[in-house]
Predict the 3D structure of the following.
Amino acid sequence: MSAVFENVTCKFCGCLCDDIAVEVEDRRILKAKRACPNGLGMFLNYDPTLQSPLVEGKEVEWDEAVSAAADILSRADSPLIYGLSSTSSEAQRKAVELADRLGAIIDSTSSVCHFPTTLGFQMVGGAACTLGEVKARADLLIFWGCNPMEAHMRHFTRYSANAKGFLTPNGRRDRTVVVVDVRPTKTAKTADRFLQIEPGTDYEVLTSLRALIKGKDINEPVGGLPSEQIKELVQMMKTCRYGVAFFGMGLTMTAGRGYNVAEIFALGAELNQYTRFFAMPMRGHGNVAGADQVITWLSGYPAAVSFARGYPQFGPGEFTSVDVLARRETDAALIIASDPMAHFPRKAAEHLERIPAILMAPVTNCSSQVANVILPTACYGIDAPGTAYRMDNVPIRLRSVMQKVRPTDEEMLMRIMEAVKQ
Ligand code: SF4
C-alpha cells in the first residue's frame, strides 16, 4: 500500500521547495506532486538498489570499504575532499573535521559556480534579504545572467515574479521583471524588459548604473545598450518600493567574475539611499549554500581551504579543486555527493582518473567510473533526514520519506574518521 508524505523538501536546487507531496510504495516514489521537472526527475528516478559498497569493482562488506577508504586517505600526502553541495550540513561538518584530521584540502562545488560571489562579498559586503521578503514585498525583480525558468523552475511561482505577496496581492501584475543577459532566454521571454548586453560587459554596465545613481551622466552606449535604456533602468531601481537583483553564473563565471559580483552588491547597497534594494545569488545545488556556511563556521573560509599546515589556509586559485587537480598537486580524492568527472575540465579530470579516489554518493554517476572505492549512501531528503541551506541562507529541514537501508554520508564520514585515527 502506498503512503503520501506532505510538505517534503526537494533538495535538487537552491529553491529547496518544501511543499512537495510525495507518494511512496515499496521503496519506490510513485508521485511527487508540485515538484518541477528537475525535482520530479530526482524523486522518481531514485533507486536505492545499490546497497553494497564496491572496492576495485568488487562488492565488499562495509567494514572493508571503510578501511580501504581510510587507507587511501591516510597514505596520501595531499588528499582532496571535494563536492558537498548535495549532502546535508551535518555531513559537511564531518567532512571538515576529517579534512582537519588528514591535513587535507577541502573544497565544494561552489568553486566552479558561485565562488566569485564569495570573493565579491568579501570585497564590499552586501545587504541580504530572504525569499520570504521577496515574495511579500518585491515589486521590481532583476534577473542578471540567470535563467530561472529552466534552472530554478518554481522560483517565479513560489518566491518571485508570479507569487502573490503581502504588498503584491496580484502577483505578476504588481511586479516588474527585468532580465539582463547576453542572449534571449526562456526567462527573458517572460520579462517586461529584456536588456541584451554584449558578452563580457557586465562590469561596465553595472559600473554605469552605479555612476548614474551617484549623479554622474552617461551619454554613450555601454555594453551595447543605449544610454537611455540604462537611465531608464536606474529610474526603475530608484523608484521601486522593494527591489531585488538575482544573479547567476552569467555574472559570476564571465569576464570580471568576483569584480562583477562586488559591483552588483555595491549597487544594491547604494540603492538603499532611495529605496529597499538587495542582491541575491541564484545558488544551484540544493545545499551548496550550506557548504559555504558550514566550512566557514569551522575554518573561517567558505571553500578552497587547506589544512596541510595544521591550520586552515584560504587559497582561491591555489586550493580550488580544478587548479589542484590540473597542477597534479593532490594524490587522493574523496568525492562527496557530486560528479566532478562530468563537469571538470579535461586536465583536472585526467588527474582525478590517475589518483586513488573514493566516491560517496546515493547514485552512480560519471565519477563512479574512476572511483576505486564506491560508498553508496542514503539520499538526504528521501531516505535520510538532514539540514540544507536555501539560496537565501535560510536552513530548511530535509525529511525522510522511506526507511533507510544504507548509511548516511555523515555516518560514513564518522566511520572513516575512526578508521583514520586507528
Ligand atoms: S524549483 Fe528546485 S527545489 Fe523546487 S521543485 Fe524544482 S528542482 Fe526542486
User: Anything to note?
Assistant: The chain has a mean pLDDT of 96. The first strand starts at residue 3 and ends at 8. The first helix runs from residue 37 to 44.
